[in-house]
Design brief:
The protein has 3 helices and 10 strands. It is α+β, with helices and mostly antiparallel strands.
Amino acid sequence: MDMLRRWTGRNNGGSMERSRDDEERREMMELSRPLLNLRERIDRMFDDFFDDFPMPSRRMGSTMWAERTFQPRMDLSETANAFKITADVPGMSEDDIDITVSDNNLIINGERSEESEETEQNFVRRERAYGMFHRQIPLPDNIERDKINAKFKNGVLTVELPKDEEAKSQWRKIEVKSG
């Protein structure tokens, strides 16, 4: 009888049952992995879409609105004379943006707040949106830091980083040939 108990795992901690349960658990994880991966991708997609909006956060069982940061979309282009950074910052004005050069970095900070209110006979609807961003962009050594300039128009920030003379002389366009 002791031999049977040891072999079945009864009365000694259930090692046979545990190993069977562990195996079933592993099989379930393997089967559910594609669904978990899909869920993670969908979560990332929604996170990327809603980066610019305040989102609810759960804290101690209640839903509270948390201030979210957003990262403006930025494009970097290069010509023979300069690098150009273009950032989409909708809902902001030039007064909401702060640009500094520190060490070897261009630092762009911004904060926006937007409020709207609609009043009708029986109700008032008030909406507020807040957001902050901080972008730190490493600068190449061949930039004339004292000539960096920025322009803002229609929610688009453009920062021009002029190259020094040595960098301008080294820049050349390479022709792409077919075949």
